[in-house]
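Q: Entry one of two.
A:
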Amino acid sequence: MTYIEQVALGRLSERNVYGTDYNTKDGTAVRDYIHVMDLADGHVAALRKLFTTEDISCTAINLGTGYGASVLDMVKAFEKAYNKTIPIKNCPRRPGDAEKVFAST
């Protein structure tokens, strides 16, 4: 998201989109975009739980929204918010990139 914002603000000329041939609705990768402050709040809540629960054992907690948005969904959202076109450059997939990744909350 920060790279899209940098393009919207004119600090970068375009946003690279890695992979446009995924088996998704628009061909771009799907990710669980969570705001950094929400992620930080989740970590603080986990620490509070750790220090206030006697037998917490080993508990896994997934932090995220629970649904994914594609790279182009995010570009369109920024275009709407900034009321401008975000130039993109379609690039090949990067090795190891997953098609869809989002939290099971």
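Q: Entry two of two.
A:
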Amino acid sequence: MRRISLLFLVSLCILLLGSCKGSVTSASEKKMKPALMWFDAEANFARLSNPDSIDYYLTKIKSLGFTHAIVDVRPITGEVLFETELAPKMCEWKGYERKDFDFLGHFIKKGHELGLQVYASLNVFVAGHNFFDRGQVYSDHPEWASVVYTPKGMTSITNEKQKYSAMVNPVDDDFRTHILQVLKDLVKRYPDLDGLMLDRVRYDGITADFSDLSRQKFETYLGKKVEHFPEDIFEWKLNGDKMYRIVRGKLFNQWIEWRAKNIYDFMALVRKEVKALNPNLFFGTYTGAWYPSYYEVGVNFASCQYDPSKDYDWATPVYKNYGYAELIDLYVTGNYYTDITIEEYKKTNHSVWNETDSEAQSGTWYCVEGSCQHLRHILKDNKFIGGILVDQFYDNPSKLSATIEMNLKASDGLMVFDIVHVIEKNLWKEVEAGMRAGGALK
């Protein structure tokens, strides 16, 4: 009897030790910062057209310390990479036809087997690819295309062939209904999906949207007619350097405020609707980190506790009410800078002209370390994940490692965009070095 009791106590101790060990491991895993690898739909279309390829690359990123796979299932054409009656399915890209299989479902199944979280990424306020004249605004819904106000006048964004994204008007109720239905259908079909990552939840830029619909809705917001449209918003003026610059009108700041409200209202609505379907679903988004000029796309991703009107002349006191950081469970921002440290930036003093900017920008915002410091201030207690753009470092691969390290240390995680750049330039060693130096890989 005593021997049995002794054996029981030994067994109990072993079980307790095992339980304690498991708890320590679990706590350690919780402390690890998330590391996200993005899988673009179009760039990886042929490569990921076989389940074995998906298995290979998911296993590869897991071995390098990544915790999340972000899978693009609605590229900028508006087509989708999952079964739904609500949107056209992308079955071919650049002449390559994909065999029929559950693309996203396989990502989720294999990712979970490996211990990875899997998020579906969707490009939201866009529905066409201008380089290929392809997508919903080219086939079924030309009325969705944003009307842009350029120095040459008003035109559909589909006529701006230097821009690849045919963005839509964010206040078009028909489109908003469509994209919300697509998002909800996706969540219903994939109950094991860990999260959503919304991209391009914004206006195209300062030139958008100047349609009659936008004018009407803005006038409703103001409670009065706009006497001179678009001049009361802004005008294009040719400077001595033969470059067009914006001259703000009397309603410019209210226009900026109204656009930010439109994006805020949409984000709040989507969060409410998808969480009603799956309360455990993480609600995420990606935006550019260049906050001083990001107002040009109608987005205020800062905390609602931060008042930008004290720092910037484009913000009204009301603008802070449309800061949506508190709506986001996983926030990713693009620290797309080739200068890594503040010290390095002060030596180079680079001007940065991002895709969505109307003119070049400068200052310590525009290096990775400086960006992270500024983001801490405007986001208050809300966490953010620093994103990198791999193809910026083709000519200097060692800096790829450095920016991975800096984002892991200075932000609350890492997002790598995109796996295709790592594969095609064989930059796995640089990624591994950065992950190790940043503490994501032991």
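A: Comment on entry two: Residues 129 and 165 are 5 Å apart (CA to CA). The chain has 13 helices and 16 strands.
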